[in-house]
Amino acid sequence: ERGGHTHTHTYTHIIHTTHAPHSTAGRQRAFGPLPPSSTKKTRAKTHTRTHTHTRTHTRTHTRAHTHHTAPPGARSDTGAAMAGRTLYSSEFVSVSADDGGAVATLTLARAPVNSMSLEVWEQLSAGLRAAEADMPRTRALVVASGLRRPLFTAGNDINELYAPRTSEGRYRRFWRAQTGCLVAFLRSPLATVAAIGGHCPAGGCALALCCDRRVMADAPKAAIGLNEVALGIAVPRFWVRRLAQVVGERAAEELCLGGRMVPTAEAAALGLVDEVVPHDSKELDGAARAWAEKQARLSPAARAETKRFVRAPLADAWWAQVDAEAAACWAGLNEEGTVRALGAVLARLSGGKKEGVAAKL
C-alpha cells in the first residue's frame, strides 16, 4: 500500500518481540552482549499478524495477508521465498517460511544491484531478528538475492562511503547498522546459508562470510572477495579477521592486499565458498535449502551453544570496537586520495546507474 494514509503494519521494532522460551535476555546469556538494536523490549507477542501501533508513512510495506509487489528487476521464480508464512516484509528485505518446514528464506531485492545502504543493513538485521523470533519453529535461514541479475549483492552503496555526499553522523549510523548486522549473523543461533547467485564483492562478501555456509552459482564472470583496496579503501579490520578464519591467514592476506576478486572455482579451492552449483536459480535454491534442512534436523540448542563457543570471541571484539572503527574509517574516507578514487568509481558507475562497490557486473 502506498500513500500518506494510516494503516497497521509490522515494523522493525515489533519483529523481535520475544516468546517466553526465547527471550532476548536468554539470547544474551547464550550469545554474549548484543548490539543495541537487538536488545529493545516490546510488549506484544511476536506473530506475523500481530500489530502494536499505526503509523502514517509514504513507503511501501507489504502486510502478511497481502500480495507482495516485486521491485523492478526482481526474480519471478522465488517460490520458496514467497510461499508460506511471511515473517517480515520491508522495502528491500522480506523473510518467509514454509508452513510445515523449519527453513526460512531472507530475500534482498534492491534493484538494480542490491547495493547496501544504511536502510538495507537495518532491514537485513530486522529480517534476521524476525526469523530468530520464530524459533524453534524456524531453525535455519537461507539468505538470497531476489533479483534476476547473476549476483548476490554488489556491496556497499558508494553514496554511503563517498565523503562529499554524506556526513559524519550519517556514516557513523551506517557503520553501526552494518557492523551490528554482520555481528548478528555471525552470532545467530539459526543455521544460516548464503545462496550466492553470482558476483559478490566487498560488503556482500562480508555478509556471506558471516553466514555458516556459502553456496555459489557458477555464473559467467562471477567472482567473490574483499576488493576494497582496488577501490582505494582499506579493508575493515574485522572483515580481514573473519576472512582469515575461513580461508587462512596467508590466503586472506594475499586476497585483501591485492584487492582481488576470485572466480567461483578458485573460491571453492580456497574454502571461501563451500559448494558450487551450475548457473541455475533452482539448482542454487535447492542446494542451499538441502543444507539448511539437514542442519534444521540437528538439536538447535546444542548447535547454537557450539556455535557460540566458536564465534563469540570474534563477535564480542568486533562489536566492542564498532565506534573506534567507524571513526578510523571515516578519517580514511576523507583522505584526498580516497575521495579522488571513490569519485572516479562513481563516475564509472554513473553510466550504468550502478550504486554498489562493483565497477563491473
How would you describe what is shown here?
It is a single chain. With 361 residues, this protein is α/β, with parallel strands linked by helices. The protein has one domain (23-48, 71-350): 2-enoyl-CoA Hydratase, Chain A, domain 1 (Alpha-Beta Complex). The protein is built from 13 helices and twelve strands. It has a seven-stranded mixed beta sheet with strand order 3-4-5-6-7-9-12, with helices on both faces. A three-stranded mixed beta sheet has the order 8-10-11. A two-stranded antiparallel sheet has the order 1-2. Helix 5 (168-187) crosses helix 12. The longest helix is centred in the last third of the chain and has 21 residues, at 300-320. Mean pLDDT is 82; it is low at 1-33, 36-69, 76-82 and 357-361. Pfam families: ECH_1. Residues 1-79 are annotated as: Disordered. InterPro entries: ClpP/crotonase-like_dom_sf, Enoyl-CoA_hydra/iso.
User: What's the oligomerization state?
Assistant: single chain
Count of helical stretches: 13
> What is the CA-based Rg, rounded?
19 Å
Task: Output the CATH homologous superfamily.
Answer: 2-enoyl-CoA Hydratase, Chain A, domain 1
Strand order of the largest sheet: 3-4-5-6-7-9-12
Q: Which of globular, elongated, flat, extended, rod-shaped describes the shape?
A: globular
- Overall number of domains: 1
Which residues sit in consecutive blocks of at least 5 with pLDDT less than 50? 1-33, 36-69, 76-82, 357-361
The CATH architecture can be named as: Alpha-Beta Complex
H-E order: EHHEHEEEHEHEEHEEHHEHEHHHH
| Major β-sheet profile | 7 strands, mixed
The beta-strand count equals 12
Named CATH topology: 2-enoyl-CoA Hydratase, Chain A, domain 1
SS strand fraction: 5-15%
